[in-house]
Amino acid sequence: MASFRLTRSASRALLRPSLSSSLSIFSSSSQSSSTTITSPHFSNQFTRLSHLFPDYHNSRHHFRVSKENLSFLTKFRPGIVWISTSSGVAGRSGKGDQPRSSNNNNSVAGVPSWVDVYLPRGIQPYAKLARLDKPIGTWLLAWPCMWSITLAATPGHLPDFKMMALFGCGALLLRGAGCTVNDLLDRDIDTMVERTKLRPVASGLLTPFHGICFLGLQLLLGLGILLQLNNYRSSVSYPLNFSGLSQFPLKISRVLGAASLLLVFSYPLMKRFTFWPQAYLGLTFNWGALLGWSAIKGSLDPAIVLPLYFSGVFWTLVYDTIYAHQDKEDDIKVGVKSTALRFGNSTREWTTGFGIASISSLSLSGFNADIGWPYYAFLAAASGQLAWQIWTVNLTCLTDCNRKFLSNKWFGALIFSGILFGRAFS
What we know:
single chain, mainly alpha, two-stranded antiparallel ribbon, mitochondrion, transmembrane helix, UbiA_prenyltransferase, EC 2.5.1.39, 4-hydroxybenzoate polyprenyltransferase activity
């Protein structure tokens, strides 16, 4: 026991100079080699556009790390101290071992995202505003598009890969635009929520003007992709004649694409008025199930696309309710609503019902599309994956909620694989 005490005291004596010298590296290097972006004075023609790039000195939560010390940070593994730009949730009762670092917009020192490593410093806040460092949202938006395009393929043939590439790029841009709108509208709320207070607009790294300019660029690029869709026209038949008009010609692909913007722009407001913003997100995120089919077929087959669409809506209610449990304490404090607060301790039962409805709708859509047997084999595997999420998630553990949420990209991949092989064997 004496030797153990001696070892502890000796180790403390050794750790103090080591830790102080390690921290001194940060201060000295930041003074000597960190890059500073100053406020523009428009002194010459080369500085007129500099106001579009963030002022790092004025950011309330920016933590500067020099390039020379990036390699040092990746190898720095202290046993008693971890340097982070986030305060975590240690101050919350009973949750000190459940860090939010996996959800923060600023990287933990030593674990930088690809945006921090590879993109120029002036562009990084815009990339984080579009959540390019968190691709899960793009996957969740893109999968229903891919399902629909593949389901619309001719039996025995591969899907249209050019159309899939267009929809993939569109999903990336539309998701980025949605995140930008969300951060602009929620900038005051985000400052009060632990998980979101370091987002570029909320932290002051970007101004609302920067965000609006970036939103305009994303929408302009999205319009270019929408115009690439063929000028399909469909005849929509109505059961009754209204003023003698039983046929109405419609450029359905472009109209559906433009209509999705109404959902994207209004979604961030839903949590202020209803406990069901996750349902509205489902209507928004799965719009590609309608658009993908129309882009290939030039029409909508309600018996196929509507069950496919609503299967995605129910799926979204599962994964976004799990996701919302990360913020439920902050949501109560701020005064916004979610299905996590609405369901409370009954969340598992509600999400089970949504999961059953999602799988049932997928089965109905595949049956109406006369798809081959491999689809149902993959659907069974996807059902198991969804059941694993619902029944094993620890809704009081922030890390586990995020882990289950991220796993939904594999659910989407299983459904896509089932449709792909099912069409090949149709």
